[in-house]
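Hello,

Following up on my earlier ticket. Below are the three sequence lines again, exactly as submitted.
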Amino acid sequence: MTDLTRRGFVASAAAAATAGVIAKPAIAQSAWPNRPVTVVVPWGAGGGTDATARIVSSILEKNLGQPFNVVNRTGGSGVVGHSAIATAAPDGYTIGMITVEITMMHHQGLTDLKHSSYTPLALMNEDPPGVQVKADGPFKDIKQLADFIKANPGKLKASGTGQGGIWHLALVGWLNAMGLKADAVPWVPSNGAAPAMQDLAAGGIDLVTCSVPEGKAMIDAGRARSLAIMAAQRNPLFPDVPTLNETLGINYSVGAWRGIAGPKGMPADVAAKLTAELKKAYDSNEFKDFMKARGFGTVWAPAQEFDAFMAKGDASMASAMKAAGLAKS
Amino acid sequence: MQISDRISGGGLAALGLVAFIYGSKLPPVRGQPVGPEVFPMVVGAGLMIFGVLIALGIGRSFEGANEVVAAEDGTTVEEKSAPFDLLTAFKVALPPALLLFYVFFSERIGFIPTAFVIVSSMCLALGARWKAALLMGLFAPPVIHLIFAKMLRVPLPAGLLPMPW
Amino acid sequence: MLDTLFEGFRLVFQTDVLIAIIGASIYGLVVGSLPGLSATMATALLVPVTFYMSPIAAVATIIAASAMAIFSGDIPGCLLRIPGTPASAAYTDEAFAMTKKGEAETALGICLWFSALGGIIGTISLIVMAPLLAEMAFKFSTFEYFWLAFLGLMCATLVARSSPPKAIAAMFLGLLVSCVGIENPAGTPRFTFGMTDLLGGIEVIPVLVGVFAVAEIMRGMALKDPPKIPHRKFGSILKGQWELTKTHKPQQVRGNIVGIIIGVLPGAGADMAAWVSYAMAKRFSKTPEKFGTGHPEGLIEAGASNNASLASGWVPSLLFGIPGDTITAIAIGVLYMKGLNPGPTLFTEKASSMYALYIIFIIANIIMIPLGIMMIRASSTVLRLPRYTVMSVIVLLCAVGSFATGNNLFLVVLVAIFGVIGYVMEKNGYPVAALVLGVVMGTMVEQSFVTSLIKSDGSIIPFFSRPVAAVLAAMTFAALLWPAVVWLMKKRRAALEPAAR
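Thanks for your patience. The regenerated structure is below:
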């Protein structure tokens, strides 16, 4: 069972066999979907990716009249679920939510999968990181912080996720953009953004680069302050937080994103229909309200643009990971 | 599967040594004073020390017999195991073997047939009559399928016998 | 103040909220009692349902279902020696020993009664001193967590009736299991042997199901005649509990306090609270030799601590959006979704909603008692069924339940492997509970140690110089040296005795 591809293949073969039993008369018609669709989520139930996938699925289910079953295929730090999507039968009955990690994992040599292993359908969400510091600490704006880092490399410690995670690379990318080395701010790995924010308030670390919504509760509680976000524009939900470009003149942006994709080689008509339906879901009030309530950013990019977006992200991850000494080659 | 403390302790110490050596070969990580190699090495060393202690029989005096407290009066009786013959060995190995059977066959032949095999063979091994084992195998799987696949939406493979729900 | 309180009551006593509480309670009780399905899983599966509910009903659903599922996780642990959650693994052997004596209903009654009491006391602590407890959580950085995890590991020798070296070796084996995968501070794959499935490491649930459930069934296969479980008729489950409450006050109070403190610390949570409290009950007991033979003392303290920590775990979640455990992580998502954003404003601007939450907590813990008694009565019939009916279904449940936690068949392979490991360990006097403890705490020990050293640039001084860390360090060393002191004292007494004669 180490052979994942084969297992996925068996799974999809079994699924296909079932389909044959249930839906024989309709099989030749293009009337996709005529049976339930599986939506694979590579991360655990209850997390942000899971929640986003579930709201999208419930809207698709309502509009298309077939069940869209969310399945959390966890394990292998996301590798297992991502490969389950890539190796499923490309018939439109297994799709999944892919995340920013797909542009990172193959550089670390954890998998051969990359964005080109999928049929991209739509980008739905992106959250840029902010730079959060302790509220009663010495740093009042991003310029002051940047100057301090330049003057005292290695003095401040940062956290926000595990070693080599997206927020770690965001920090390294920002330091690089300022012409600094990755170890100008050593990274303290943590189990996600929430423990890092707690440690920030407890005085264990000096800055946290996680998305602003992830730090919102602590910011509202007056424990932390967000100095800047690493995005092209300000976040409408946090209009007071400036971008790096406005304050430091650095045009650096990065983000954790989530999108819907299917296995490579999906029929063009099914893919087109799915993208159109996803657009409808994206424009629905239900989706907008949900994302706003969670503080998640919404971004739309249909198939081709999503592909180009991932290719660009892949290249910038490659350089950031090399700078951090995380890339395998 | 009673093995002497000498062997089990020695086995643990050997495992510790392997973990220690494996750990020591892991590359250090830039920016971390303590790399990924340290924890496996500490754990490996710990296993080695305590494995050796066990092999030497230290602390054996603390071990009681495998006893059950009998009901009313609180006196203890030794739990009786059957003599370890081939049939018993086969029976003991059955539950994990059936789990592996599930792993390899559920996606090929579907949940219901796989579950039938698991439930019926467990019943037979535990001394149920043929009829009872068959009945259990026929009725238990659909109920579990209903709970997990329908109510909890766990994607159980349909295979040869898809359920109507 | 009084107005907002009334408003809170009005928010709770709506038809939809009350239906949600009752429905979610029954759901939680049933799902939590299925071996292999955890309380986290039960809660996560409810999230899509809450999309269509009013805010208070949605949160009520999560609160009620999670509280019930945690209690009913004790049921398979007690009746069949298959703990539903890592937390109940600490006292599974004790509860099962009571079942073997024919006291299953008493054991489950203890779990239920002291859980409910602990939950209510935990809620009161949440109401009265939430800001104070939150301040305490901010005294904890990774230095303090390291000592805490270290203290947790030291419970290994206390929770098991076996030789100390074997308990410690089993714990080290658990730590080794926790090394597997990429989820370590360095993000380096360890012991994965090129297998993708091992990258994410070995989770606690398949280990738990393997070493307890599968190993127990394997043991049962070898028994010629099944141990007859004496059947006793009980008049009232509650009456016995009232007696125990009166006779075990110190255990209960200690359990509540430890539970509340550990619960507030994000990442430590109910799992650790149960282990620490069970170990403390044994250490402070006048009859430690009775532990493990079906003795209520440890169960009372661990049960009291377990559920108190659940309630206080909501403090960092509600005040700062920092989840105390996986269940509150899910709950925070629901809170955001329903516009009840965590933060101090929840306590000021939305005070009536806040009171509503408190009231729901109390209600959930109160109705847990009658619903739980019904569940105990229903589920203890399992003991009277022919052995093959229960055993065969459990093998199937082990497969399906562990598969369901990640929809990955590799988890079933792990269950089988750990079943064999657990069986061999058990046969040779190695306590499997210590192995589970190692798996639970391993990541925390390593993570807190490594990250602390990064922060201090490699210096170990902050481990001792920070005030809270210093106290914890002193406790650790005291606990380490205590057995040696006892041993020395015994030896001296033994040396003196012949002289006195």
